[in-house]
């Protein structure tokens, strides 16, 4: 009924303009044949949710329409248990907290999302600092966990940038904050950051009620 994938960074989920091949959908079709749910159309068979290209980690796909409908309802009801690990520049002002702000397309850059005062979709992110990351006695970054109440496009990236702690390696958000914070760290830490392949954001936990047998499962 389901297939769970640990998606690598740099892997696009579904075909789009400029990227028709070498996507997760292509791999799913190769692996599963014609058994995937067709609800999302021929370009997105089995796809119930997505991860950004540069975000790694767990994603679930539906292998039949019944499973797809059951999972889609849970995503719509915000009952899916999802958690991420991230490494961010600097140290958040609070050890834990809730970031809340409606998210919509950035009117000045259509490739980006932004927190908006009017319109947009309601978004809530819970975060908790798990570890301060130091290099040569200098605090450079923070290792944090994020849990989502909602699942908006680029939600974690936008929300963490909004509190002044953009994700390390994020190519799109928080460039001014990242440059400012990066200039404060020592060369040893910056060299380690330069070796990252993509952004430091990983979907490490995914839990839901199995849409066919009704059992709670956690990956």
Detailed description of the structure:
There is one protein chain. The chain is α+β, with helices and mostly antiparallel strands and 219 residues long. 21% of the residues lie in helices and 31% in strands. It is built from 5 helices and 10 strands, in the order E-H-E-H-E-E-E-E-E-E-H-H-H-E-E. Strands 1, 2, 3, 4, 7, 8, 9 and 10 form an 8-stranded mixed sheet that branches. The chain has a two-stranded antiparallel sheet with strand order 5-6. A hairpin with a 2-residue loop joins strand 7 and strand 8 (138-148). The radius of gyration is 18 Å and the shape is globular. The two termini are 15 Å apart. The mean pLDDT is 89.
Integer-rounded radius of gyration: 18 Å
- How much of the sequence lies in strands comes to 25-35%
Provide the helix percentage: 10-25%
Give the low-confidence spans.
none
- Mean pLDDT, to the nearest integer, reads 89
Overall 3D geometry? Answer: globular
How many angstroms does the end-to-end distance come to?
15 Å
Structural class: alpha+beta
Number of helices: 5
Oligomer: single chain
């Amino acid at each position: 009924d389901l297939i769970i994938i640990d998606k690598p960074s740099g892997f696009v989920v579904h075909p789009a303009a400029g990227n028709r091949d070498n996507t997760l959908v292509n791999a799913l079709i190769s692996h599963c044949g014609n058994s995937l749910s067709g609800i999302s159309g021929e370009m997105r068979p089995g796809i119930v949710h997505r991860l950004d290209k540069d975000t790694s980690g767990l994603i679930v796909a539906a292998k039949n329409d019944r499973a797809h409908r059951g999972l889609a309802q849970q995503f719509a009801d915000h009952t899916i248990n999802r958690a991420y690990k991230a490494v961010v520049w600097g140290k958040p002002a609070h050890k834990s907290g809730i970031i809340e702000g409606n998210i919509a397309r950035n009117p000045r850059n259509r490739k980006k999302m932004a927190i908006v005062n009017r319109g947009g979709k309601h978004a809530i992110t819970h975060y908790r600092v798990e570890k301060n990351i130091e290099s040569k006695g200098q605090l450079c970054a923070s290792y944090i966990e994020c849990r989502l109440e909602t699942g908006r496009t680029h939600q974690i990236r936008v929300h963490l940038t909004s509190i002044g702690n953009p994700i390390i390696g994020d190519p799109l958000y928080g460039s001014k904050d990242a440059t400012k914070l990066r200039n404060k760290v020592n060369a040893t830490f910056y060299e380690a950051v330069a070796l990252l392949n993509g952004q430091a954001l990983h979907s490490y936990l995914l839990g839901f009620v199995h849409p066919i047998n009704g059992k709670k499962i956690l990956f």
